[in-house]
Specification:
single chain, 602 residues, mainly alpha, 26 helices, MAU2
Length: 602
Amino acid sequence: MATSGEAPESWYLALLGFAEHFRTSSPPKIRLCVHCLQAVFQFKPPQRIEARTHLQLGSVLYHHTKNTELARSHLEKAWFISQQIPQFEDVKFEAASLLSELYCQQNLVDSAKPLLRKAIQISQQTPYWHCRLLFQLAQLHTLEKDLVSACDLLGVGAEYTRVVGSEYTRALFLLSKGMLLLMERKLGEVHPLLTLCGTIVENWQGNPIQKESLRVFFLVLQVTHYLDAGQVKSVKPCLKQLQQCIQTISTLHDDEILPSNPADLFHWLPKEHMCVLVYLVTVMHSMQAGYLEKAQKYTDKALMQLEKLKMLDSSPILSTFQVILLEHIIMCRLVTGHKATALQEISQVCQLCAQSPRLFTNHASQLHTLLGLYCLSVNCMDNAEAQFTAALRVSDLTTHQELWAFIVTNLASVYIREGNRDQELYNLLERINPDHNFPVSSHCLRAAAFYIRGLLSFFQGRYNEAKRFLRETLKMSNAEDLNRLTACSLVLLGHIFYVLGNHRESNNMVVPAMQLASKIPDMSVQLWSSALLKDLNKACGNTIDAHEAAQMHQNFSQQLLQDHIAACSLPEHNLISWTDGPPPVGQFQAQNGPSTSLASLL
């Protein structure tokens, strides 16, 4: 026991050394580490040591045990004591940051916010902590969907870093604000902000990895902005720059040189996460453009990298990346005629969402949408309607307007195929009228809305009207290389001309539709085109060509039929009846065989 005159350092350093030894043992001996730290209080230490020890105990208990109440008690004491000690910034603000994180974990958001506000208010002389706490409170508002407050805080951060001379972190604040403005669809504010960011990023001279990571952030925002707008062709130069940028980053070595400005001590994302993100936006582009084999290739690469990263890193963003990748590849599989695989991947998304309530909240609508698309592909129309309706019910229309328009477009196609839902159909079509007040700025979705109108007019026998709508779709899809919409419009126009007896014009539409569908590859359009080619050649007396087309049609029919039977026989097929509550996992019963009609599929 130290005497009153003895310096406290010797006993304190000994206990601290033991605690650190136990914490870093393999495996860690957390109980012994906690004992050593608790022993510090036996010595009635001075306030600085007392506060720091409370912070260390709170941190160890929070990160390594489930005893959150005790962790919270220590962190609250650390925060309270450290506020009374001058020049004690690190302990004070780390305690505030960690305590607010713990409050959020316990759903005590209303305790976290005032704590962070107070810490922000008193940290203006400590640039690193002031910026970090601003980011933390902005993130908290974002998770609560209060994007306006989050944007205000990021704006405060941008101005503060300009004053303290940190252009690098100013760019991070501005880019983060740009990301939220994109989520809010405030495009008028996004454009000048991104222009300013571009200038700051180009002019900043510093650590090459930090500079390139800023450039990746900037380009990711530009690419996703174009993709949200459905501009698949216009985005190509940006996407190419982004891919070159990530290649540059992968060749650079992480220098451990610390920035001279403490406000610059931030990283947007680790290098490995950025690689996955670039794969992800490439998959999004390939999916929208209809390069489905390319989408498959990049998905495989990204998922392989994710598996490696998840072994060492429990960051929740990796699960988000994985879910978004799976969502895109599932849509590809449904188009390429691999429904059974798509269904198993939908089940995988269910499992990932079941592990994380936040992930499920953010992706429930997409999950029901994917199940709706699967139901459409196996001709379970009632289930498709129920899934799309569930997707609309759980979607957040403020931040997911494009998703809403996508769901409504697909629900309209269900009503058209059912043929007896006129009133509901007209109500839906009024809400996605491409000629008047279309609800979203997406070029791709507006082109799809014209296609749906054309499809309805075709079924109603109003062929001239159908041709007008489909020509609009073609004009829009050609302008932005939307290959799938182009193929679908061409084959439907070919069908109209065939019905009208204009065989030459029909052939001029169906042949390129078939070529494009083979390139994508889109099994349904190939099936449809080969059936039309068979009938066209028969009508024109081209027996050999008709026989060849019939053979192709037979092959596609067989492939689709086998896939249909395989998918409907999977136990996961029962997912189609889940429309409410958390995602079901491990509740599937194997079925004896398909329970759906194949007639309209073929």
